[in-house]
Amino acid sequence: MSLNRITSFIFGIIFIVILYNIIYYALKVMYKDVRTGKKGKRRRVIQAHGLEIIKSTPKESLKNGSIIPVRETLSFGRKEDNSIVLNDEFVSGYHAKIYTKNNIFFIEDLGSTNGTFVNGTKIDGRVKLSVNDEVRLGNIVFKVID
Asked: Is residue 63 part of a domain?
C-alpha cells in the first residue's frame, strides 16, 4: 500500500467520524425538543391603537374620518420632522406625542403654547388614553379608537 492510499483512507475515516458526530448531535437535540415539547419564545402581541380624525381644518392634509394607526411613538407639531405635521396656527412646533407602553395608550404634551386637551380638559405632561377619548391639538380633534 502506498502512502497516498493510506493517507486517503485515514482522511476518509476521519470525515465519516465527523459526519456521524454531526448527525448524532443534531438528532439528539431534535429528540430533546420533541420529548420536552419545548417551543420557541412567543412574541408578545402589542395591541394596535389608532386615531380617527373627527375635526380638521381646510389647510390640513388630514381629512375628517381618516384613521392614523399608532404602532409606535408618533409626534405631532408644525415642524417638518414630526411624524404627523399639522398646519394649524394654534399647534406648536413640537406639540405632543402619542405612544403605547405595556399595551397602555398615552399622550404627552411637549410644553405646547396652547395646550393639549383630552375630553375638553387641558392636560399637563403624560395622560393615559382610553377608547373613545377625544384629543384636541389646536383646532384638530382626534378620537381614540381600538
From this structure: yes
Asked, for residue 44, whether it belongs to a domain, the answer is no
- 129 lies in which domain range? 50-145
Residue type, 119: N
| Residue 19 pLDDT exceeds 90 | yes
Is residue 45 one of the residues assigned to a domain?
no
C-alpha separations of 17 from 3, 10, 22, 24, 31 in Å: 21, 11, 9, 10, 21
Average pLDDT, the chain: 87
Give, in order, the Cα–Cα distances in Å from 136 to each of 4, 19, 85, 123, 144.
85, 67, 15, 10, 11
Number of domains in the chain: 2
pTM of the model: 0.64
Other CB atoms within a 10 A radius of the CB of residue 51 amount to 25
Number of H helices, E strands in the chain: 1, 11
